[in-house]
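INFO batch 0412 | record 1 of 1 | parsing
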Amino acid sequence: MSLIAPLALLPALMACHSQGQPPLPPEALAAVNDHPGAPREALARAIDTLFTERDLGETRALLVMYKGRIVAERYAPGYGQNTPLIGWSMSKSVTGVLVGLLVADGRLRLDESIPVPAWQRPGDPRGEITLRQLLQMRSGLRHRETGDPTRDTDTVRMLFTDGRDDMAAYAEAQPLEHEPGSTWVYSTATAVILSDIATRALTDSRNPAIRRETMADYLHTRLFEPLGMHSAVAEYDAAGTLEGGSMIHATARDWAKFGEFLRLGGTVQGARIVPSDWVSFMTTPSPRNPGYGAQIWLNRPQVDGHSELLPGRAPKNLFAAIGHLGQYILVSPDQQLTVVRLGKSLGKERPALMSRLGDIVALYVGSEE
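INFO prediction complete | emitting tokens
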């Protein structure tokens, strides 16, 4: 009797070896549904690579949604479907939707001077910056996102050192380096300014506790709860400002719900949360960078010479929320597909990581259930 199971597995093992590939470990195939909308074994193998190839960094969670349902889901040891994970700069896309809600409410306007008190002094050219320009990363404000040494970059100073207690004050104190609207510069500080503007639109109070509670209530009531993102938690600085550029946490399933919400044009189960033209605005190329929209990345060439997100492997209308250390929500409306990857990958590991994520997306091009 002890020989029956090994003998039953022999044809499958021989088939794998005949294709020049090792057999899949049980957990790899178990992570994929019977009808995932793509070749099941190929999908399981592509996902397994993310967890086993050392030069990709550490994948902690991987989730695939196809036609609105989870078809593949896998976690590294120590992580699971109830583990909230930081989104880093994926948080910017949440902030982009937050601003859209306030615009829809009539509390903010895209093309008017924005209510930053420090910019309203007579003769201050920063008073010409519009909400649209901030959302599209073309405010003109001086900012250094990355560099060497890292500790001297504006991002690190704002988040962790001299700006950490009042991040918006740090970001809003920066002078203009370019004419507003003229130049694209990726900036976490911009998302913090947007968070401050959003908070000011909801309350006149400067009391940190009131600012924090007002924003938390709005976020949960208007966005997280309608989307079913019950695990979502946002962090706030000592001044009560939402850290909307980097510090929102959620489970992989809830990050996927956010991606699906965007894929469906701002709706959840047919209920509209933000106007459809807002999601269209977010996914329309910035005038100064075809590869970026409004707080979201696009599958188009970047202004700095980098190629599309997935060149030749996904539709042009694929877009993505992308975070530090390799956090990804890839959304492909044409393929009815959302892919979430959460983990920790260094800069040198991310090109290969993105290529492996492309392997997953490519399985759905032209696929049918």
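INFO post-check: The radius of gyration is 22 Å.
INFO record closed
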